[in-house]
Amino acid sequence: MFLSAISILVAEYDEAIAWYCSKLGFELVVDTPMGGGKRWVVVTPNAEAQTRIILAKASGPEQTAWIGRQMGGRVGFFLQTDAFDEAYAKMVEAGVVFREEPRSEPYGKVVVFDDCYGNGWDLIEPAD
Q1: Rg of the Cα trace of the chain?
Q2: How much is the pTM?
Q3: What is the 3-state secondary structure (H, E, C) of the chain?
Q4: 125 near 83, Cβ under 8 Å?
Q5: Buried b (16+ CB within 10 A) or exposed e, 71-105
Q6: 128: pLDDT confidence band, cut at 50, 70 and 90?
Q7: What are the distances in angstroms from CA 78 to CA 51, 87, 120?
């Protein structure tokens, strides 16, 4: 078994697609209309990645209130790389908002950034 997908609540499909694809370089895998304004939207860091992200448009005030707060202010998503400095530089150039400067920890090189809605992410290159 493996974790095939996670969902992230978004305000608008096209806004989220544009951010994940232009800022992080993710690939749009699926964008299928479901009727009634709903779409099945899936992005992935690359074609070989096993875990994908479903961009789920919030429906109603309760879900809308959770956009950008799905993890209660904690980092909830982890983007792993084996080329930290290169990935970080590309993200800076693309305009990704970082909460801090990159740092080295016993578990690897890491920096925290926010997606377009304020969800916390780690960009991480694990230590050997």
Answers
A1: 15
A2: 0.94
A3: CCCCEEEEEECCHHHHHHHHHHHCCCEEEEEEEEECCEEEEEEECCCCCCCEEEEEECCHHHHHHCCCCCCCCCEEEEEECCCHHHHHHHHHHHCCEECCCCEEECCEEEEEEECCCCCEEEEEEECC
A4: yes
A5: eeeebeeeeebeebeebbeebeeeebeeeeeeeee
A6: confident
A7: 11, 13, 9
60: tokens are 């109603």
Instruction: Give per-residue pLDDT as tens, 41-98.
Output: 999 999 899 999 999 999 999 999 999 999 999 999 999 999 999 999 999 999 999 9
